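Design request, tokens follow.
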């Protein structure tokens, strides 16, 4: 992990802990980055879980936005943040993937693409990842609240074969028969006969 990421993680962790202390919650936030792009902040389960998660995770998304904005304002190179409270997102992703398994099987068996219902970015990310593990391809299409996933069967990889040798065109140019074979005597080129001197 590089120095800039470590500084961003420390700042984001402290910022979230300070925010939580305003609500009377003094807790230690677990902070890391698995892919050196997104800062992962995990708040342990407390008596304020419902308040911190919000309806359908709205409060968590607001916390992410606030922390990301603070990182940008402070000039940090890494500003993408993922906040999870009491493993809400991890559990939700597991539920989404379990329900998506039926869609994966349907696409794999039918061989036809399937449009899914619109989903939030975190759910779409979980479905994309799971679809790849099932050997399917997926893409997000649409804008805003209508953004959804299209699941597609994986395209077969082209077989690696040697390039075919070009067939000889037998009709293009007939072979010239030698003059001896045609019953004619070959003409001698003047001055090139070794017997003549």
């Amino acid at each position: 992990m590089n120095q800039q990421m470590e500084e961003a993680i420390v700042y984001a962790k402290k910022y979230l802990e300070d925010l939580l202390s305003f609500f009377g919650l003094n807790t230690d936030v677990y902070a890391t980055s698995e892919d050196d792009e997104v800062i992962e902040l995990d708040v342990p389960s407390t008596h304020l879980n419902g308040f911190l998660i919000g309806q359908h995770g709205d409060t968590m998304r607001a916390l992410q936005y606030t922390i990301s904005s603070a990182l940008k304002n402070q000039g940090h190179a890494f500003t993408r943040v993922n906040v999870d409270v009491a493993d809400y997102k991890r559990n939700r992703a597991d539920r989404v993937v379990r329900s998506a398994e039926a869609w994966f099987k349907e696409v794999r068996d039918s061989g036809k693409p399937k449009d899914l219902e619109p989903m939030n970015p975190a759910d779409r990310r979980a479905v994309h990842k799971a679809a790849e593990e099932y050997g399917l391809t997926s893409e997000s299409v649409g804008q805003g609240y209508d953004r959804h996933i299209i699941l597609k069967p994986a395209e077969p990889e082209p077989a690696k074969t040697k390039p075919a040798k070009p067939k000889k065109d037998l009709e293009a140019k007939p072979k010239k028969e030698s003059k001896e074979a045609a019953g004619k005597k070959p003409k001698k080129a003047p001055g090139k006969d070794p017997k003549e001197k």
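Comment from the thread starter after seeing the answer: thanks! Helices lie at 3-22, 49-53, 58-73, 88-110, 121-133.
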